[in-house]
Amino acid sequence: MATDFKSIPLIDVSPLLAKWDDPNMAKDEGVAEVVRQLDQACREAGFFYVKGHGIPDSLIKEVRDMTHRFFNLPYEEKLKIKMSAATGYRGYQHVGENITKGVPDMHEAIDCYRELKRGMYGGLGDPMEGSNEWPMNPPNFKQMMEEYMSLCTDLSRKILRGIALALGGSADELEGKRAGDPFWVCRLIGYPVLSSANGGDMNDIGCGAHTDYGLLTLVNQEDDITALQVRNLSGEWISAVPIPGTFVCNIGDMLKILSNGLYESTLHQVVNNSPKYRVCVAYFYEPNFDAAIEPLDVCIQRTGGTKKFEGAVYGKHLVGKVLTNFVM
Q1: Whole-structure pTM over 0.90, yes or no?
Q2: Residue 65: is it exposed, middle or buried by C-beta count within 10 angstroms (0-12/13-18/19+)?
Q3: CATH 2.60.120.330: does it fit domain 10-322?
């Protein structure tokens, strides 16, 4: 359960990454300290920064720069990759087309998902079947993003091994039938300057208060614009002030279920009070698309012996959200 935290902890995960595939990793002092910090952060805030993650700063910045260049294009150019049901909900959406709890969000975005082939998961995957819609301009967008998402997938898997140890399980507790073949989502998001600053009367929330759906999120945010806000137990909004060279990480609904409530998927929102257009790239590491997610036995034992949550099939949970998230 989240607490009245006033700031978001910073964790150097490099000792964990150095030993992630060592059968004796849990006995390493450096790994044990990272695991302790992960456990504390997931219990108290559900959010943490990670440094020492090994993804080049130059690539992290280039992803943001290229995202800026795309959103700077004329609207007609962006519409060439417009999202629709026919694209499996992949592609571009204009400002106000994403909905959070019935309210239009003041951002534009490109939505990408791990590609699903026809019939891959039977009827469960039908709405999400398709290939990602990549712009031709800027050039090399597809190649750069695929490299970036591959690195994010690898990093997320390693962090989840540390979280599995923090929960009291084995390092591979969250792999196999749970997330051994992980689905992923990536959103490249642009937040215009607040309409109120321009005398407008539109909603000023870039993205309304929500929790994430899956296991772990990696947020690549601008170094000089504070916009992401995380709600503590008292209802205060705590700013995730940018720390260059880090990702902001948070846990999602599926990890909350797996942990039987030991860890919380914390409400967060985005408000761009800056006079500058802001981008962020959010990568979501998810369970296997067809995974049946239930509280882990070790977590049930640690929380009094009773399951606090009903199970959920991840793909069904995702599709239910996606089908109500957009004005199309």
Answers
A1: yes
A2: exposed
A3: yes
